[in-house]
């Protein structure tokens, strides 16, 4: 932030014009499993280990409802090195619910340092979703949420692409 100084001889009430979009953001969780887009789920504005654990306990299994049980039993949970993912209570939960089948900081399989685009969400989903969401300016946080939901509907209907994304991910690792 910069200080603004207005020097004037006559009007002591200077006005600094600005024409920028109000800044707002949301935290979105989503995943890709067996060619299915899971989510999106709008997370709380302030994320920490406790709020992320609440998501894992209260929302994750509802989101995975359409994934066949056999796939859920064998799937891996992957997340990056975000601070809320690294909390001890989160790692303990993952060790209990995804024993030896999760990837993250201090997990059974460590999150590779300096590899932000390794997972399918980073190298496909988020970029494609942002293209759809930000195709025109957004004026409110509610509009942003609606656009994220709409983008998910568009992406969800392209299962072939989601399957190719997973195949590409497997080739990369």
TrEMBL record:
<keyword id="KW-0812">Transmembrane</keyword>
<dbReference type="InterPro" id="IPR036397">
    <property type="entry name" value="RNaseH_sf"/>
</dbReference>
<feature type="transmembrane region" description="Helical">
    <location>
        <begin position="24"/>
        <end position="43"/>
    </location>
</feature>
<protein>
    <recommendedName>
        <fullName>Tc1-like transposase DDE domain-containing protein</fullName>
    </recommendedName>
</protein>
<keyword id="KW-0472">Membrane</keyword>
<dbReference type="InterPro" id="IPR038717">
    <property type="entry name" value="Tc1-like_DDE_dom"/>
</dbReference>
<dbReference type="Pfam" id="PF13358">
    <property type="entry name" value="DDE_3"/>
</dbReference>
<feature type="domain" description="Tc1-like transposase DDE">
    <location>
        <begin position="25"/>
        <end position="145"/>
    </location>
</feature>
<keyword id="KW-1133">Transmembrane helix</keyword>
